[in-house]
Amino acid sequence: MNPSTAAAVAQQPHWQAVCQVEDLVADSGVVVWLEGEQVALFYLPGQAQALYAVDNRDPRSGANIIGRGLIGSVGGELTVAAPLYKQHFSLENGRCLEDPQQALRVWPVRIQGKAIEVALS
Amino acid sequence: MKATANGGQRERLVIVGNGMVGHHCVEQLVERGALARFEVRVFGEERQRAYDRVHLSEYFGGSDAEALAMCEGGFYDCHGVHLHLGEAVLEIDRERCEVVTAEGRYGYDQLVLATGSYPFVPPIEGSSGTARLVYRTLDDLDAIRAAAADARRGVVVGGGLLGLEAANALKSLGLEAHVVEFAPRLMPVQLDDEGGAALKAQIEALGVGVHLSRATQSISAGEAYRYRMNFDGGESLETDLIVFSAGIRPQDALGRACGLDVAPRGGVVIDNHCRSSDPRIFAIGECASWNGSVFGLVAPGYSMARNLAALLLGEASSPFTGADMSTKLKLLGVDVGSIGDAHGATPGARSYRFIDEANAAYRRLVVDASGKHVLGAVLVGDNSYYDTLLQYCQNGIALPADPAALILPQGGGAPALGADALPDTATICSCHNVSKGAVCAAIDSGCADLASVKSCTKAASGCGGCAALLKQVFEHELTARGVTVDKSLCEHFAYTRQELYGLVRVEGIRTFDDLLERHGKGHVGCDICKPAVGSILASCWNQPIMDAALVPLQDTNDTFMANMQKNGTYSVVPRIPGGEITPDKLIVIGQVAKKYDLYTKITGGQRIDLFGAQLHELPLIWGELIEAGFETGHAYGKSTRTVKSCVGSTWCRYGVQDSVAMALRLEDRYKGLRSPHKLKFAVSGCTRECAEAQSKDIGVIATDKGWNLYVCGNGGMRPRHAELFATDLDDESLVRIIDRVLMFYIRTADKLQRTSVWREGLEGGLDYLKAVILDDSLQLGAELEAQMQHVVDQYECEWANALNDPEKLKRFRTFVNDRRADPDVHFVREREQRRPAAPLHLIPTVEEAV
């Protein structure tokens, strides 16, 4: 376990409501504004984990576009393909499959009733 | 300072010269981890760090010094290499093992000379100032630019490779350029007489004056221009400036002064390991003389740098054993290639020659006395033959029964050498020097797909020009190993696109989930199969792509029905059928562009592209466009784009048919048709072909009896002329045949395959296609027409459809919980319009009202 994960466990996460379930688009992404951050939410109803939250900024192009990428599975791992240069990022941990130098920040996210909540550390 | 390596301390390695070869040596050292063993110090006489001299003329074509640099600004610092720019080494003190500069003395344990060469300027009376310019460094180019400021005409002395580059530079500065060459032909080293003549014809056609067999005696004041060059024999030529590019001389002054052995024709003498007569001193690149030869190309210099880096680290290094001087160039836009023994100097050599005086093209193939092997070749006008000929020459591959076929014009482009014919030593990727053997080794060590071969060998990761060859070799090698080449669409479908198309048709499948459940694996799909299936479903059933079940399938641009640009904003292209537009509609486009501050540009397809719209602006923009009667232009889709047309018989004195009316009819019929790749059409009203129909997927050219149909052409990266398919058709037959061709293409092509590539891959070629479409040999005609009619009947403008549905519009929000625009999108103004700000000069836009 790396130190940051340890810290996250030790610290009580602060859950912040960002939008409603009806704002999401099934099997696709939308973007929310979260205190200056742009967070892309991907909604996969029917999957074991139905919701993922990752950074909207594409590290390769510098443009805020990840939320508009295509969802897929690569070798069993759920991914989003960046719209401009098509590199794949794991929805689970933000890792870039093609280039270990690139990674997306990920946030814990959950559905509470009709509200979507993202955990701020 | 004591000049010995002592235990624990790193050895001191000094590199004199920061040109391309010196820099490559540093790169090689860094890559091999040499910085742990050596403290590396590099001296460059010029102020700029190493730059690409091979592409120097681009300095006048828009590239700045930074764009030509060989590495990022921080490369040397970041690896701990001391870089002394603008600090010339004045002397080498071999006794104390020190180099001396104006700033001080620096000790070395090993010394590398990479000082390059200098331009040779023949002694000519009266040559000085702007009548004695040279072309080698960025400073030289600045001097040429300054001299050109008030000049009309410029002359380059020297018609070799560099001279022609220099002429190109003068031309791009807007001067009338002339080349004066002493020899009776251009590029005397690389070309023969016929090749030189073809090159001369092509260059003259570009407006460059060529003067051969001229020796300049003196330069005096001119009358109409600043100078007059007086040639042997009394002729003269006036000019405002003169650039000398009459060859290079090794920059060996340092070596000469400190007593190293220097070759009679110049250059520090080196052995097979680049070592000079002093075992501590090495020389690489153009300042070195190996076996009496100086190599004036960058590739041999690089190979010396690689060998030296390996040697310094005690790695197994292959000795330098000479260099292949084969070159492939584009000079003034003209392809020139020279391979091996281009002059046929080998005893018993025989040549095949192809001369095309109409196009000033020339090809020569030199074979050995037995007629079995290629010794060399000369190419002018078309380098597509180069790669194959080089493979034959370098690898001693046995020639085919009719060697002439290798240089004769081919219907389907230059002949390619099959992957199986290549020996293991054959170079596949010249950027990273990857051989076929290395590719095979990668496969044997477990690389099971093309991507892993690429990342393991680096092949095809440089210029990418070898990607097709690499794929061929890879597939051939897999087959040879008894592995079935997997032609599955992706990991979710073990079918080709063509097979999936058949399943969708036959079983009447309407959704991705249904297809995945019946014939695929998993529950999600991926960015390969989803858009491919989305396209198949659209080609078959043509339902609105924004329908909930179809949305997640669409590729990025289809999802938002606009073209994403580099900063994440979109461009918008309304349909302008046939390129015909009323002034009122033109005004609406102008008003919309002005209101949303969109960068506006005319496209090649006779339409107008509006750039810089953010996601949330798209519905607003389209609302106004649709209100004014526009429809979506599908510029974002793999679908029908435009039908370009000339003005035709209604206005043009030459027109024989109403090309605009036919273009409108075709565009109206096929708009919204989704296909494996984009489709472009054009209709010309007469044989003058102003609409360029022969470069389109579907080209129509009027005759006095009707229409001629051309199919499967395209422009772009690999242009292909469309082929004449049927002649003198009436309107109805024309449409019926196009219906069939397009539907047959949609049915049988691979994903993302243009009609041209599809056509080239059809077994039986054009005759087969004619049999299927015109003679109905498969009895598919009626079915294909009915399928097309269904798509046509289902057409609906997908933007109008989306605007009428609040659910579909929900996606067009930059943030679903906030009305602000993306604060990271920045623009700057240029030529009175806005464009994306480069990361260096970000200027915040004013608060946007949403």
TrEMBL record, chain A:
InterPro entries: NirD, Rieske-like_NirD, Rieske_2Fe-2S, Rieske_2Fe-2S_sf. The keyword Oxidoreductase applies. Keywords: 2Fe-2S, Iron, Iron-sulfur, Metal-binding, Nitrate assimilation, Oxidoreductase. GO terms for molecular function: 2 iron, 2 sulfur cluster binding; metal ion binding; nitrite reductase [NAD(P)H] activity. One of its GO terms (biological process) is nitrate assimilation. Residues 16-118 form the Rieske domain. This is Nitrite reductase [NAD(P)H] large subunit. It comes from Pseudomonas reidholzensis.
From TrEMBL, chain B:
Siroheme binds at residue 690. Residues 565-627 form the Nitrite/Sulfite reductase ferredoxin-like domain. Gene3D superfamilies: 3.30.390.30, BFD-like [2Fe-2S]-binding domain, FAD/NAD(P)-binding domain, Sulfite Reductase Hemoprotein, domain 1. Pathway: Nitrogen metabolism; nitrate reduction (assimilation). It is an enzyme of class 1 (oxidoreductase). Pfam families: Fer2_BFD, NIR_SIR, NIR_SIR_ferr, Pyr_redox_2, Rubredoxin_C. Residues 12-288 form the FAD/NAD(P)-binding domain. [4Fe-4S] cluster binds at residues 646, 652, 686, 690. Binds 1 [4Fe-4S] cluster per subunit. This is Nitrite reductase [NAD(P)H] large subunit. It comes from Pseudomonas reidholzensis.
